[in-house]
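Sample A.
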Amino acid sequence: MIKYTLKCEKDHTFDSWFQSAEAFDKLLSARMITCAVCGALGVEKAIMAPRVKPARSRAQEQGDGPLSAPASPAEQAMAEIRRQIEASSEDVGDNFAAEARAIHDGTKPERSIIGRAKPEEATSLIEDGVPVVPLPWGNKRTN
């Protein structure tokens, strides 16, 4: 997609999007582009200033805080939810599926757990009615 600023024979300017430069040329030669203001057929590309974004650091774009700090209210809320879940749950690591099934079956004490499960293990737990939910963050060691 390409955006052009166009100008009609009556000096009206307007912007329009085209699939490509070739598509614009084809539509223009077929007289299928009209002024968005007055409907005139005499339309041509206007002089356009390039849209160049000045180089800025991530810190400038997101504030002056450290890169590890949440940048938005949504990120702050997610960080707080993660902190609460991790503080109130036992991390059972790769044994999550076995621990969740044992808790569900009553062979292990009921408690909140977090950990990792392979997709087929998680599917099996769900199919068997074990209440599990994926968390919206990855492995603590890599994040």
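Sample B.
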Amino acid sequence: MFIKTEDDLRAVYGQPKTKTLEKILPNLDHHCEHFISLSPFLVMATSDVNGHADASPKGDVAGFVQVQDKQTVLIPDRIGNNIADSLRNIIHNPEIGLIFFIPGIRETLRVNGTCQISVDPALLTRFEEKGKLPKSVFSVNVREAYMHCGKAVIRSDLWGETQKIARKDFPTLGTILADQIAGLDAESSDKGLEHSYENKLY
């Protein structure tokens, strides 16, 4: 048995409380801005014109995301693998969802809206890091923003010690890729990844 309609959904979950809906803001307030200024990590959700979804991690030193004004968030796109899933999706479908995390804080910040991709030289310069410019900047027009309670983080003990996995208990990315791609050598892949981590973060 599956939930297929909103009536089915509400029969199981009921209606949200009025106060819960009132927390959804049409723009960033000072608490949202403060949260973003302290966040070193976010997840960016986009989808293409056919609704095929993608979620991409974005991270840098806290403050790497800039709030231009209460309706605009700017996110640099650092060097990556050039698959460019989020970028391709935004070209065809500007809808975007963001969830910001702060290590040690149970609550998260959710921001939804639309996005454009800027390569304005003056804007890129604002995000220079270690002498390197981002390839582009995501300019997010905020439609709604709200703080999300910490239940998921509490249940997962995300910031605690109990869920940490020892490096030896999970295969290296090089090993995984060697299993997935014919002709790839695990040791060489791991060495290449380490070189990239040390020298190509920006």
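B remarks: The longest strand covers residues 136-148. The beta strands are 41-47, 53-59, 66-69, 72-77, 95-101, 108-118, 136-148.
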